[in-house]
Amino acid sequence: MQVGHIAVALAISSYAPELTGGELEALSFESIAVIMVSHWLPNLDVIPIWLKIAKPSFHCTWSHSLLFVLVVSLIIAMFNISWAIVAIVSLLIHYLADLPSSVGLPLLMPLTKKRFSLRLWADTGHFGWETFKGSYIQAWPWILEGGVFLFLFIRIYQKNLWPFI
Amino acid sequence: MLRRTPALAILIAGVISILIVFIFEIHSRPFTTGQGILLYLISLLPSLGISLLFDTISREESRKLYQINFYEEKNICK
Fold it and tell me: Do B24 and A157 touch (CB under 8 A)?
């Protein structure tokens, strides 16, 4: 999933009050910022690849494991429990959004390197126009990502936020 | 992409939009025309995907992509 991650993060933010017992407001700056950052965190594994510190195969490895969720949520929990809760949900939903891709996610690393995938579309790499074009020439990215944008539209309508006010 | 694919997407988007209005519209605050247009435009995204499922060219492209490992140095596009 690529562009759809934006809609996924915003949709999670619309549930922030339910997730945090009212500590964070739905689609507030704070909830959007925390959720966007934590939702995108796994994909920052491309930075060491760009810096040529890691091989391209480093993408979708450690940062896409349940251990990563545990470590990140524990670190954030030291500062703010509500942020940690939405970070856990954001990271898990990030994995769920990436699961249909053929690259597969090593969710149980380091216990096993087995990759889990629903193989609904062929993975086309981690960055660049070819990755983008290759992804959106296939059917399922449109269905799932478009579906998330529709879901977000309905959530904003139900929450009576702009442009529905 | 086949020429019929966008046309099919336009039709499916209409069906999805109507279904969403029937299921989710709150009677006390009906969608305005602008919101309806926005709903239709967003519905076009998954509709294009549904119509691509029936597109032989897209399926063939997808099949080719499955055979490439984009994480091997030699296959990375310059």
Answer: yes
